[in-house]
Amino acid sequence: MSLIDPAEVVPAGELGRVHFIAIGGAGMSGIARIMLRRGIAVSGSDARDSELLGQLGDLGAKVFVGHDAAHVGDADTVVVSTAIREANPELVAARERGLRVLHRSAALASLMAGRRAVAVAGTHGKTTTTSMLTVALQHAGADPSYCIGGQLVTTGLGADEGTGDVFVAEADESDGSFLMYTPHIAVVTNVEADHLDNYGGFEMVKENFARFVDRIVPGGTLVAGADDPVAMELADRARARGLTVRTYGEAEGADLRVTGFTPRGLGSRFAIEGAGEVALGVPGRHNALNAAAVVAVAQALGVDGAAVREGLAAFGGAMRRLERKGEAGGVEVFDSYAHHPTELTADLEATRDYLGEKAASGGAAGRIVAVFQPHLYSRTRFFAAEFGAALGMADVAVVLDVYGAREDPEPGVTGALVADAVPAGTETVYAPVRDEVPGLAASLARPGDVVITLGAGDVTALGPLVLERLAAR
Q1: What is the helix, strand, coil percentage profile of the chain, to 5?
Q2: CA angle 342, 347, 350 (to 5 degrees)
Q3: pLDDT of residue 5
Q4: Are strands 267-272 and 256-264 parallel, antiparallel or unpaired?
Q5: 126, 325, 351, 428: which is the annotated catalytic residue?
Q6: Per-residue pLDDT tens digits for 195-244
Q7: Closest CA to 185 of 118, 127, 248, 128
Q8: Residue 357 among the catalytic residues
Q9: Which DSSP letter does residue 318 get?
Q10: Are 249 and 258 in contact (CB under 8 A)?
Q11: To the nearest whole percent, how much of the chain has pLDDT over 70?
Q12: Which residue in 90, 170, 173, 343 is the catalytic one?
């Protein structure tokens, strides 16, 4: 069973005029951008104005703020995401007129058709891995088309049309939409329980990843994380199909084994057996593993390894992936999209390594002030204890209330569930009034500390405000 059943891919040249409902989102705007670059007529609407809407307008899209049936205009195809409700007036109009309605993933599959498609999936790490791969291939001269769920720090773009024959895409498992793709190369970084509001249980999550692996084209390649037991089960499944399998990680027996990981400030150095030494400018052991996945894909594509390593060294990160926002009053502020316990753990470990490096070089022995906003009531209910345990890696934890996103509130499910689960050794404050958090975080931080905002909701907007408070004190 899947939340989205694969459909026949419509070639991009047959889509006609395309209208996007909620065109301002990261994924939708990226697909629209590539269509515009290919000469496809695009229109779209969004609930609010944004910089992305302006960029699409500059590229030739007809964009609207607000939703109205008239905005569909003379479109032949309408693109929606899972978040769009059937009552949306533009979707209602499209149904009444019998227009082709495609899920966002089906529209992306149309753009990937005819290219050597690389789909990067996994519970954690897919955005950074897709971003790293894109930059590395660009550096090596492959110039891929790409569509990422985040934005590259260096360009501010999350998608673009390239001149090469490779198309790199982040494959989202949250709603099953990754089952729309038929990649030549698929990456599975890891598989853990998440999005249980959609899937109901971990077994269904694993079943959908198995179906994703089954969609790799005959003769294709699976790149799998050797440190993850479910990914290794999928590797066995792929081998049984006669696919090429390349594994990577720190585990014994990995085809591309990561060894000698050493933090270096906001980066690291390590070796990949059989591929040489690698230097990264982004922190964390998890990013070393992401880089190994990139090397494995590059080898499968036949891209020069030395150029790929140079591209990895030049990678500046993806926005909201442990992104440095600035420094004021001797305190550095970072922002992270981490919204699962494993992701919090990885980012806090990387931050601890960074502070350790600073202290070893004569800097102040700084602390971690983690500002966490739980995302979704269902996820908070499922993982409150695990979130609390992860925040125990910080010295100070400020826990906001739940960012509900697409969900309605659940009685008794608040950020207090997480705050109450943080171990006693960490100073913890439950801060349900969001507007009070920047001043609170600034008051808790002292010179040498790192403040890191964590979560998939609007907590990202608080980092600059914390910097303002720090500068003013």
Answers
A1: 40, 20, 40
A2: 125
A3: 57
A4: antiparallel
A5: 126
A6: 777 778 989 999 999 999 999 999 999 999 999 999 999 999 999 999 99
A7: 118
A8: no
A9: B
A10: yes
A11: 98
A12: 170
Q: How confident is the model at residue 246 (pLDDT cuts 50, 70, 90)?
A: very high
Beta strand residue intervals within 75-182, DSSP E: 77-80, 100-103, 116-121, 145-147, 159-160, 166-170
Q: List the catalytic residue out of 77, 90, 123, 127.
A: 127
Q: Tell me if residue 127 is catalytic.
A: yes
Report residue 1's pLDDT band, with 50, 70 and 90 as the boundaries: very low
What is the Cα–Cα distance from 304 to 296, expressed in whole angstroms? 12
C-alpha radius of gyration, the chain, whole number = 22
Q: Which of 3.90.190.20, 3.20.20.150, 3.30.420.270, 2.40.10.10 would CATH assign to domain 323-472?
A: 3.90.190.20
Q: Find tokens 């150029």 and name the residue.
A: 307
pLDDT digits 0-9 by tens, 89-115? 999 999 999 999 999 999 999 999 999
Residue type, 253: G
Bridge-based pairing state of the strands 256-264 and 244-249: parallel
| Under 8 Å between Cβ of 175 and 198 | yes
Residue whose structure tokens are 């697409």: 406
Q: Name the pTM for this structure.
A: 0.84
Q: Say how many C-beta atoms besides its own lie within 10 A of residue 326's C-beta.
A: 15
Helices 285-301 + 126-139 axis angle, to 10:
50
In this structure, what token pair is assigned to residue 455? 């979560």
Domain ranges of the chain: 12-104, 114-314, 323-472
User: Rounded distance, CA 122 to CA 230, Å?
Assistant: 11
Residues in the chain: 473
For domain 12-104, is the CATH number 3.30.160.340?
Answer: no
Can 126 be counted among the known catalytic residues? yes
User: Distances from the Cα of 329 to the Cαs of 365, 398, 443, 466, 467, in angstroms?
Assistant: 15, 20, 11, 11, 8
Strand order in the sheet with 100-103: 62-65, 42-46, 18-21, 77-80, 100-103
Give the E-state strand segments of 6-147 in sequence order.
Answer: 18-21, 42-46, 62-65, 77-80, 100-103, 116-121, 145-147
Q: Which CATH architecture has domain 114-314?
A: 3-Layer(aba) Sandwich (3.40)
